[in-house]
Automatic annotation (TrEMBL), chain A:
<dbReference type="GO" id="GO:0016491">
    <property type="term" value="F:oxidoreductase activity"/>
</dbReference>
<feature type="binding site">
    <location>
        <position position="96"/>
    </location>
    <ligand>
        <name>[2Fe-2S] cluster</name>
    </ligand>
</feature>
<feature type="binding site">
    <location>
        <position position="136"/>
    </location>
    <ligand>
        <name>[2Fe-2S] cluster</name>
    </ligand>
</feature>
<keyword id="KW-0001">2Fe-2S</keyword>
<dbReference type="InterPro" id="IPR028431">
    <property type="entry name" value="NADP_DH_HndA-like"/>
</dbReference>
<keyword id="KW-0479">Metal-binding</keyword>
<feature type="binding site">
    <location>
        <position position="132"/>
    </location>
    <ligand>
        <name>[2Fe-2S] cluster</name>
    </ligand>
</feature>
Automatic annotation (TrEMBL), chain B:
<dbReference type="InterPro" id="IPR036249">
    <property type="entry name" value="Thioredoxin-like_sf"/>
</dbReference>
<keyword id="KW-0479">Metal-binding</keyword>
<keyword id="KW-0004">4Fe-4S</keyword>
<dbReference type="InterPro" id="IPR037207">
    <property type="entry name" value="Nuop51_4Fe4S-bd_sf"/>
</dbReference>
<dbReference type="InterPro" id="IPR017900">
    <property type="entry name" value="4Fe4S_Fe_S_CS"/>
</dbReference>
<protein>
    <submittedName>
        <fullName>NAD(P)-dependent iron-only hydrogenase diaphorase component flavoprotein</fullName>
    </submittedName>
</protein>
<dbReference type="GO" id="GO:0046872">
    <property type="term" value="F:metal ion binding"/>
</dbReference>
TrEMBL record, chain C:
<feature type="domain" description="4Fe-4S ferredoxin-type">
    <location>
        <begin position="140"/>
        <end position="170"/>
    </location>
</feature>
<keyword id="KW-0677">Repeat</keyword>
<dbReference type="InterPro" id="IPR017896">
    <property type="entry name" value="4Fe4S_Fe-S-bd"/>
</dbReference>
<dbReference type="InterPro" id="IPR003149">
    <property type="entry name" value="Fe_hydrogenase_ssu"/>
</dbReference>
<feature type="domain" description="4Fe-4S His(Cys)3-ligated-type">
    <location>
        <begin position="80"/>
        <end position="119"/>
    </location>
</feature>
<dbReference type="InterPro" id="IPR019574">
    <property type="entry name" value="NADH_UbQ_OxRdtase_Gsu_4Fe4S-bd"/>
</dbReference>
<dbReference type="GO" id="GO:0005506">
    <property type="term" value="F:iron ion binding"/>
</dbReference>
Amino acid sequence: MSLVEKKSAYRDDSVPKQSCIDEILNTYKDEKGALIPILQHTQNLFNYLPKSALLYIADKTDIPISTIYGVVTFYSQFHLQPRGRNIICVCQGTACHVRGGKIILNAVEKELGIKAGHTTENLRFTLETIACLGACGLAPVMKVNEDTHGRMTEEEIAKVLAQYK
Amino acid sequence: MMITAEKLKEMQDVYKTAVSLRLEKNDRNEQPTVFDVLICGGTGCKSSGSKEIQRQLEYELAARGMLDKVHVVQTGCHGFCENGPLMIIYPGQFFYCRVKPDDAGEIVESHLCNGRPVERLLYYDPVDGKPALTAADVSFYKKQKRIVLEHCGRIDPEKIEEYIAVGGYAALVKALTEMTQDKVIEEVIDSGLRGRGGAGFPTGKKWSFAKNAESDKKYIICNADEGDPGAFMDRSVLEGDPHRVLEGMAIAAYAIGADEGYIYVRAEYPLAVQRLKIAIQQAEERGFLGKNIFGSGKDIMLHIKEGAGAFVCGEETALIASIEGRRGMPRPRPPFPANEGLWGKPTNNNNVETYANVAQIINKGAAWYRHFGTAESPGTKVFALTGKINHTGLAEVPMGITMREIIYDIGGGILDGKKFKAVQIGGPSGACLPEELLDLPVTYDSLTEVGAMMGSGGLVVMDETTCMVDVAKFFINFTQSESCGQCTPCREGTKRMLEILTRITEGGGSESDLELLEILARNIKQASLCGLGQTAPNPVLSTIKYFRDEYEAHIKEKHCPAGACESLASYIITDACKGCGLCARNCPVHVITGKVKEKHCIDQERCIKCGTCYTNCPFDAIIKE
Amino acid sequence: MKTVSLTINGIVVKAPQGFSILEAARSAGIYIPTLCYHPDLVPEGACRMCIVEGSGAKTLVASCMYPVEEGMIVKTNTAKVREARRMVIELLLANHPKNCLTCRKNGDCELQTMAADMGVRTHRFDWGERKIHTFDASNPCLVRDQEKCILCGRCIRVCRDIQQMNVYSFANRGFNSIVSTAFEQDLSKVACTYCGQCASLCPTGAIVEKDDTERVWEAINDPGKVVVVQVAPSVRVALGEEMGMEAGSIVTGKMVAALRNLGFDKVFDTNFSADLTIMEEGYEFLDRLTKGGVLPMITSCSPGWVNMCELKYPDLLNHLSTAKSPQGMFGTVIKTYFAHQAEIDPAHIVSVSVMPCTAKKAECVRPQLRDSGYQDVDIVITTRELGRMLREAGIDFRSIRSVDFDSPLGYGTGAGAIFGSSGGVMEAALRTVADIVTGQDLWDIEYTEVRGLDRTKEAQIQMGDKEIRIAVCNSLGAAQKMMDRVRNGTASYHFIEIMACPGGCIGGGGQPVPTNMDIKKKRAEALYKIDEYSQFRKSHENPDIKTIYKEWLEQPLSKKSHQYLHTTYGRQKR
């Protein structure tokens, strides 16, 4: 299963154990330059990258923690703050831009009462934008978790969001 | 076991029966008894519910005991995403579009049982209103020449048997058993194939550099980090015909002497990753990839690396840094990756579409390939048509075709009968071309001449409601937020360009701003470290060049001709106002006044142009200018 | 080596293959401006100041990284190049504070120089957004003001490639890029040794030493205080650079005179306590060698190195010599022996030291270094800070007449002097140890195998019937490689000298800027010259050392010595 696709197996309240990170590290122990997949798997565990997990990875892999921090902050996929149960991604690519992607984003922001890049207080939704989902034929597009919703209109937003608890 | 061309042919013959309906010419006089129903499983169609259609269809078939007669296949992208979910029924290549799960029953009953195509699901041409019975009749496909997308939408991408059945891996076997490394490279050089990722460097020449580099270890990389907003051709190839990319990579690996490779796939493409994984596993099981392929003693191990969300990783040195687990920051070249690439070893890097061309060049020869396209830009190019165009989707066309043919003949013209204004080609590195350049033949060199770039092949069509200053701002905003931040001109310069463009769109621009933009653009192009910075100003330069009057309208008249820039809009209450007072109550800054049942008025000086009154007026009495 | 010939600005230049255009140009006397480039570091080609026109390239290329090619035609001074360079500076300035006049690096700032050189006369982008960054003054040694950072990455490279402490990394990207510690924590929260190499290479005021000059002025101005100062061996061969003199100028006498002029009551020489260190450390080594103590014994003069050992190799702390650093020893001696001799209440003494080192500022506040009953050394200033004080006081350094250090405690041998260069402590120790082991007054005292700027040096020394295996490391990168060997048992040495900074103290983080290995080499040569011309060149022959043992300490490793001149170490958790 794809790293991105895989949802956290530990979404409920059980906190992932250190042994889960060990398992990941073990998988990659003989692979050169495996920091990014290690971080991707770790993020799948926690839904974000807790500081303690990064320190643990640094300790076990001998990769300096500053380097790990540099990598984590470089890639937009990685998050240092806890995120919502459902991740909304509103496409702001060119095709969506000319077909009203901004209007969709504004409407979702209004609907949830948060700005892009933030998480609702009840941790139900995190709202993010993306430079292009590659589903330009369906512009404007938004993605909730792994579901792509194409040809969005302002009216449909509430209906779509209602599907996600 | 050594696989020879003959043995592969035997395998092909065995598997062929499974796809024969799709390969053979159909004799329409007889009512067929067996069918192949192809349902598009590309990302676009999947998100519009193609999976549910398949389930429903199988349910209906099961209810009638027809499962053994009808073969339902989930394919990759057919390209005509606008009209998804798409379904094609063989024999006959009947083309259904915008299919819904509820249509399954009727399709089975009418088409499969009684031989009557479901007319309401056919594609009706927007121009003449006539239905197209088969895919070949659809105007969108007529001018296309499919080499890369040959099998996309025709085979099940998760079954290697289907790929072999349509001639897959023959080129790899041919290269390994009949051709020397140099011969393979020579063939690719002769074909004139140029990198489809953007800059158009001759592929064969690139391979020869890596081949000639001396090292105990070499790598091959497939750049599938398709990051240009508005481009999704690589995604479709990976999702629709992954083996073709693997075959191209394996041939390249053989040619340069690499035994290991990586496919760097964008994180946002989970389906592509999944299908690639399946494909690699199947290819390894059959001995086309892995250790000691065909018993030749050669290894070709391919791995998938998932990106983590950074556009700049499309730059080859940044991509290599990312595979190595570092921040994806480019480094100056030379040394080129062909000499010092991944882990310091000679590395060849091409993009998905480039590799997808290779098998056919080896199979059919360079001379065949040169039949398509122009002398300098042979072959075809896949474009992603998006924006204000009727037929959004993927179109593969011979190089040298004009932009007009792509937009009007294939793309079906502009959406809602609006007027064409510009077409953006080449993504953030490209340019916006105006109407007078519509007859420009599309080749690498002709595009470069007009300040544009082939890029990865995104074509975003813009109409009269699109503001070109806003588009320039959109792209600069994109590049500045995707800049790696390493070199000064790109990090600081694109930020300043964005700030200038922002103030122009907000009515704060001054006449010297255009000159400042041009100076910034010139120096960012000259002084930046990598291709991202060196091309980042292109969208700005091209819009200034071709749409200067729009900039000037923003600056001098504080007016956005397209009516797209919110800050420059003014909202005016017309005589249609009934005096209901809703606008005045909703106005967040309380600048709308008027008596009940009388026409209201907006104080333009204090209006913040939020548009609340405009969207909420029940009588449409407020207009935006 | 194969050479290639290329044309730069119409001049035919021959350069070895593998040279960059920049190196070739500089070797031919053609100046190309740079910012992120530093001769001691791996180039990155990021700032784009050194761009030139090169034949065959479509855009301008970074000359610091572009390799020379046969027949290449390079132009370093065209309108296109000048415009682009000026734009680079303008863009950097747009995101940089404009308070140059009150900046600590005013006059020493490479960005400022570049702006002047490139002819930047207006701020065309002064309306633009500027990044607001945090200010880190969390520790006693270094101050980071990230608003002044131009993201050249020199600090990252020196800390990663040479010191291998990896304190810094680039974080975020694009306009939001910063140089950051892990999680953007303060330096006091991360494994920073305070070696100050980042500060010595920072081209702007983004990383500077913590300025303690005001505290020194206050002490001097306080009539109730007796302000004494000690000056480290390597300061006298570097301070001249602060005062506009050539690198490698020996300014001992001028420096002492200037310090008196500033108002210090006593000016002592750390060379003396360097000799004292050799006595204690030398005997400690012999003790370990003959009684089966923990070997290899490792020097402990360099506080950056001690910090690293406490951070990264706490299991190996018993290898460190327990002898305090020369600064530490002098601190105790001043507030005990000297105070007693001079009949001054140590409570009234302010003990200042002038050091080449930023980490010394943290060393002096170590809780272990209070054996006098007070904080042994009160204030540490670096060579750079002393330079600023001298300029502020208007001292005409060129014409000031040389004078001698105060006595006693003002005399140091040549052995003490060479402490300031990598290998110097080892050589000084060997001179004394060899005499003790052989029981002779040996005349062959120059151990040239431990000299020089190589990061790791080793030698086998025959002393009578004993063969002593030694190693010398400078830079924390070399130190870590050595410590890994010590840990896994493959470092079969008896004695190791480790200095945190490349080249030793002459390359210290508090030394004058700009600096590079050529300058460091000149400073080192000057130290060996001081040694060569010294009357006494062995620590145990120093008359002041003999006196202090006779009058106070009795003998090396005596109970008193242990009480006042030795110290302890402990794990640091950061």
